[in-house]
Amino acid sequence: MPKIIKDIESKIFSTSMDLFLKKGYKAVDMKMIAKECGIAVGTLYNYYPNKKELYISILKESWNDTFIKLDSVLESSLLPKEKANEVINILYSDIENRQGIGKELRNDNIKDLSNDKRVTEFKETLIKKIELSISKLEKKEEFKEDKNIDMKISEIILMSIIVIIKSHKNEKVKNIKILNKTLEAFLV
Known about the structure:
Elements: H1 8-23, H2 30-37, H3 41-47, H4 51-75, H5 80-98, H6 111-114, H7 117-135, H8 149-167, H9 172-184
Helix pairs in contact: 1-2, 2-3, 4-5, 4-7, 5-8, 5-9, 7-8, 8-9
Protein name: TetR/AcrR family transcriptional regulator
Pfam family, one: TetR_N
Keywords: DNA-binding
């Protein structure tokens, strides 16, 4: 009779997420995940056909709540500048709480992920959500001619959040203030 493990999917999810955070995508394999979960490798393959599918599932699930929060802000009655500041706050807090899951998305050298259409779509969705809040803000005259300015600002903000969390993790309030001031440098 097969061994019944309660909440096996959530155990696989949380254990895998922890391993990806600690060791990075390349260093983790299905055998390692199964061992940490206390299950047979075959059991793990019953839930996920490979490491990439498991990682993408974790990535999507971990960002789903963030996207819901961002949509809520974008649909709110806040003033455009308040929306942009709230978007920065949400992104900062959620990226900080996620402790780096998704950092591999910056590395184009992981072909397994960078060539996957779902990963590309995910990156585009993330930038679009930020871009939506920034597009409502009036830019300084010198930036108005650039058709891609909203995307560029979005990329600057997102990458800055990632770098500043890593470099100055115990200074959240100051970091968010700097990010907001960075955004304001582009605005009227």
